[in-house]
Records
---
Amino acid sequence: MLNNSTILITGGTGSFGKKFIQTVLKQYKPKKLIIYSRDELKQFEMQQELPDSKYGCLRYFIGDVRDFPRLRTAMEGVEIIIHTAALKQVPTAEYNPFEAVKTNVLGGQNVIDAAIQTGVKKVIALSTDKAAAPINLYGATKLCSDKLFVAANNFAGGHNIKFSVVRY
């Protein structure tokens, strides 16, 4: 399914995103692999590690899942989304609670809405074991996000799109 597909990974410069990209490049031949993140330095470093001369399918898109118009633009022509963008540090989420809500919950809803609007076929959202029985805000925001992605299958209407959540 990943061969000859256009794939967008939100949070693509994070630890999971980097490993996922390396795995895809080793095992598949995507048409395009779009790294969507707000971290310009990490994107630059990734470009140095994975040069265009060797990996011509890679595209880099500066953006934040909180920014719906930018996210929607990045999804044009995309078939598969791997959604890994999140505020993941428990102390950071506890100290900045609404920032965690804006990224993990509202950002997740932005991914859902933009994917439906742009004709994406498959969205896989990365979750965490901390969402299983949340005892902190991070787990609670990821549980909420998980529920949004699962419910999106019910309100996608006539759009040919599947939403899934996997725990990491």
---
Amino acid sequence: ILEDLPLTDPETFALFSRGDTDAVFQFESGGMKDALRRLRPDKFEQLIVMNALYRPGPLGAGILNDYIERAHNPRKIEYIIPDVKPILEETAGLIVYQEQVMQIAHRIGRFTMAEADVMRSAISKKNKEKREALKGKFKKNASAAGTDHKVIDELIKSIEHFGGYGFNKSHSAAYALVAYWTAYLKAHYPAEYMSALM
């Protein structure tokens, strides 16, 4: 049963790390194979990040390259303030997922989760009027909670930059799981898998 496969299989991660991902869901393109060889993933969470970052927005912004570099050089990982570390630690200090924007809005901007979702939507849909109103509220709330104005501006800048490429983690995780299953079958049962595929 696919759902029972361990998400820590060394042979499966070796396949990803070699970029041997022909016939692996979402990981077949030449650029993705190159990125996998550079990253050499060894955790399922890294596949989720790669799935979210191998898209036009983050590729154009250089976020994928930043993530790979930070994954190999943890000293390059920086957090604007310590409060965002628990939110961004899994993505090497980078905002990758829409859910992270919501968590930052909730934790730093003191938004309810419903308000944070409205902010996420306004950013991803580039609704300027709503975004400006929410930005003002974020600044006011964060400042009242004692966050430095410079830090608030940096956070807002990062969140707005994210708006150009945001992807949701739940979607990326579902894709990464199917990718992992297909890679596992290819790594352990290559003849049968490729026969079934063809």
---
Amino acid sequence: MINGKITKKRFFEIMECLDKKLAENNIELSINIYGGTAMMVCFDIRSATKDIDALFDTSPQLNNILSDIAEMYDLDSEWINQAIKEPLKHLKTEDLKVLYKFNNLKIFAPSAEQMLAMKILSSRPEPYKDFEDAEFLIQYLKIDDLDNVIKIFDKYAGRKYLGDRQKIFLNYIGKDLNKRCEEFKI
């Protein structure tokens, strides 16, 4: 770990350990990862993340396994959390792909398009990495104008969630990336 953070290498060590403990307890589990973890694991644009934002079915037995892993790896008790549930309520659709399959554990991650829509939906200021991540994803997807970004946002979240914060966020991205767009009037 780097300063209490989970690196990509450490993430996979932890997931291998989780898979082993799941097998020992005859449990199969699917985890959908989001946020900084997905950006780190799928796109290598982060060296580490402070926690794992994920969705998964829980049980007392699984909670015990997760607590054991936290202790084994000296992680915070919230090292894997489901705080992402609230923002995901605003999505119309998800586009998840199997990222890794272990024996008893499957890890899913959203497509780059879905991640872009989620970053715009969040539109959080620094120290969050939403702006940096959105710019990376726009370049990764080879999007040449913000009209196409808005189409992606509409596909996953819907225009009703394109509030003032998101419009300001997109205006800054358009200027920063020198993309063709009509600036939103706020």
---
Amino acid sequence: FHNVGWPGAAIGVLNTVAMATFVASLQLTTVANNSIIFGTSPFMTAAIAWLMIREKPSPTTLVFAALALVGAAIVVSSSLQISARGLAGDALAVVMTLAFAIKTVLVRKHANHSMVPSAAIGAGLEAVVAVPFIKDWSLTSGELALFALFGIFQQGAGLILTTIGIARLPSAEAALLIFVAAFVLIFY
């Protein structure tokens, strides 16, 4: 934690922004819209990686990223007819995807730094940000155990391992793999 520096702190904050906007987006739009918009993350990540660190994605990655972008455009255009609430949720999903893309590129750019403290900072900030939204502090022991397991595996091990893995792959490919994994988990 002592040597985390501004990149590590920024990665932690971007983790928090991505998670907070993900949850808020799901309150306002459909899971499908949220997921398809997140599907643009490989394209967005490739563009940001090229701008920030001049990392060129492979042609195959660009083809799949473009397909995800077309799918997102179709889904978002259908949201315009639904409601302003749905459109707000879609906008939050775009912010989530942008935060994820920037985080991915920063992790790649600073791959020589330990990312474990950055992931821990993000998980800690996420917990702090969530506190004002808690309406009922009473939990059964089963619910408390379930939340503890979620925190350990999703926000602990999952976030740490994902952040470490991102540093070892080209940015756009890492984003594409994470999107595919998220898509499978959500729709399985």
